[in-house]
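re the bet — no i am not wrong, look at it urself. input seq straight from the record:
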Amino acid sequence: MGGTNPDRGKSVSTVLGRRLGGELLRMREAHGLRQAHAADALTASVAKVAKIERGLVPIRDPDIRALCHLYGEEGAKALDKLLILAKADRDRRKARGWWNQYPELQQMVEYVALEDIATRIRTWQLAIVPGLLQTPDYARALAVGNGSWADPDEIDSFVESRMARQARLVGERPLELWPIVHEAALRQLVGGRQVMREQLGHLLDVATQPNVKLQVVPYLGGAHPGMTSAFTIVSFAEQGALDVVHMDTTSTTLWLEGDTDAAHHGQLFDRIARLGLAQRNSVALIGEVLKEL
């Protein structure tokens, strides 16, 4: 990673930092302690503790161990989760990844940076194929339909950046991806019939990868708990580690960083998965839609 990080040494709030800081804040308050107690344990200022709990600064492993000792949370499982998340946050802050050269990513930069260091992603999509599984022509048709860019060069750059993200699905440490899509995403003619034929064919190919578990929720599934919104759960260690939830709206990106929100969406995802078709049946449905085109 060439160059220096312009954010190094500055107070910068990050998604992972806020997630970790929020967990430490919860522990402190659960034991009725003040920030001054945490500051004494760290031989630091109250201002530093406040920055840690707000996710503004990276946290060293010795500081995490000291705080867990103070809060009586020294169990190996709980401590390991915090240490893993702290390392991920430090790596994220130091990274000057390929995504920084694409201003077209706009508010997706933080998500893509986290995707790059994630170990597992679970995503539920109502109307579109997930970005990690899109073909170039499908991604381009989405960008044109979105109307955010008038300059064709910007659209080309956006598509290029989206394809670059897909490198995470292969290599020495491939991302574990569990996408669940509604049947509507398969039938929406994004870019026309030829574009959709190529896109559905690509889904069939990707579904053969051992690190991808693809499911479809069919129309015949009826009402289900995921009807109101799409979301993505990003994990940085083994199942049960501290997760963050990402959601897109028409005007902004929303991060749900609390333990309660992460647990709720994890349970919601599992409920949707139980209503979805098994992977072999999902692949069969994709094949049927492809034949219809």
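see?? Residues 32 and 71 are 9 Å apart (CA to CA). told u. also DSSP finds twelve helices and six strands in the chain. so pay up
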